Amino acid sequence: MPIGLNPFLKLKVCHVITRMILGGAQENTLLTLEGLRRETPWEIHLAYGPEIGGEGSLIETARALGAILRPLRFMRRDLHPLDDSRAYLELKALFRRERYDLVHTHSSKAGVLGRVAARRAGVPRVVHTIHGLAFDEWRPAWRNAIYRRAERWAARHCDAIISVCETMGRLAREAGAGAPILRAIPSGFALEDFLRVPPRPPDGRFVVGIIARMFPFKGHEEAMRVAEHALPLLPEMDFLIVGDGPLRALWEDWLARRPEWRARVTLAGRVAPDAVPSWLAKMDLVL
Length: 287
Hints:
Layout: E1 12-19, H1 24-39, E2 43-49, H2 59-64, E3 68-71, H3 81-98, E4 102-106, H4 108-120, E5 125-130, H5 141-155, E6 160-163, H6 166-174, E7 181-184, H7 191-195, E8 206-211, H8 220-233, E9 237-242, H9 248-256, E10 265-269, H10 276-280, E11 285-286
Parallel strand pairs: 1-2, 1-4, 2-3, 4-5, 5-6, 6-7, 8-9, 8-11, 9-10
């Protein structure tokens, strides 16, 4: 293994993530926990913040996988100098007390605080996974400057970085937030779950869909603009929106102002991860 850990020894590992909502980064982390449980004798811990939104929670899924849960009182997604300082100290105390062989961080806030706390607590190996970058061309310049600086600082406190795609790894390296080892490992899918679902039988309708958390930068605003243009022109087209979150009210308001489209736009809400293949099968085009 590139950072010198023996998969056959009984090691103690802690994964750290900002929150355990129903989302891609969290599902990726759970797949990692499941793989480690299956292929190593390691003792696996999971530290996470308390925030749970309309997206749903994956905490019980982590518990069912056998992870030892370490809830963090002060970890928050948004910038908060006081709670961020408390979360850093909370993590540092956890790492010193448990004496982990490896700390693996996920998501931006937990990634910055967790990497620095782990290194300063004397954890011998620290890894971070980039599931998404907190700086991009759509956010305010001041916010991008803060996160770029924080990511560069955190990168100096870890041994390796994993990116779920080549592009984010390249952007991190260009921002000076790379590490001595930086590898792209795409998120995995159980393809057999999708292949088992039969396609939707023809019924004369053309269904355009999106499956994503109802959250900024997930494509919901763009989906609304597509629907705004397409529905009046294409009477055989319907829209299927799968997911939940803070932007649900935006969709509901959008539909309330267009009652003539209510029968053609379905808000399915939150669905379980194992139900995603069957919902995808209902769509002819996925945004």
